Amino acid sequence: MAVSIDTVYQRVLALANKEQRGYITPQEFNLFANQAQMEILNQYFYDINQWGRQHGNDVEHSDMLGIIYEKLACLTVRELDIDVSSGITTIPSGVYKLGSVFTNDTQVEVEEVMYNEYQTMQLAPLTRPTLTRPVYVNRFDGLNIYPQGIDSVDIQYIKTLNKVEWAYVVVNDKPLYNDNISVDFELHASEETELVYKILKLAGINLKSSELATAAQALEQGQIQQEKQ
């Protein structure tokens, strides 16, 4: 379930205007909204690294790693049967972070290696890539698959976030929300509050309102502490 761009916008305006701390234009909001969602997405990967070093728990809905992976699930895409018969494939458009790569027919995972590692592997028969132990080198614009003979692969990845936009039409000199051309957040529904706090913090910096930025920072830190308890 996506997060409504209008819901976030109205909450941000309500909190920003509560003590006459300045008006946030739709253009400014859209800019802050896109930055905020990218910050949230990138934080997932740092959190996975952090929580992955700790023991989880078996309580349903409260394991932090499980919660993060659930949030990423709505951004996870799996593309099937990508042709690699030439040994080279381009990375699908819209990839933000590449995940697992599997051979399409046998579903053997293709291991990622650096090019210098691949060169070293080629030096000895026991370490050379085989059809049951394939590898790939990520060239960032495409993948080199080794050895030759693999016809297609399945790729799983985290997609690039769509650019969100609170779109509007002007009525009586005021912006009126236009649902037809607005673009909602693709993040998990649970991120609505975090988006509000992050956008408020960015708005406070832009408006040079230390009170707004500090208040938003405090709200965000409070939520983070609650999540980590």
Cα end-to-end separation: 26 Å
Share of residues in strands = 15-25%
Low-confidence stretches: none
What percentage of residues falls in helices of 4 or more residues? 25-40%
User: Can you count the helices?
Assistant: 6
Average of per-residue pLDDT values: 86
How many strands, which pairing sense, and closed or not: the largest β-sheet? 4 strands, mixed
- Number of separate domains: 2
The coarse silhouette is elongated
Helix/strand/pairing category:
alpha+beta
Strands ordered across the widest β-sheet: 2-6-5-4
User: Helix and strand string, N-terminal first?
Assistant: HHHEEEEHEEEEEHH
What radius of gyration results from the CA coordinates? 23 Å
What are its keywords?
39% helix, 229 residues, 2 domains, 3-stranded antiparallel β-sheet, 6 helices, alpha+beta, 21% strand
Summarize the structure.
This protein has 229 residues and is of the alpha+beta class. Helix content is 39%, strand content 21%.
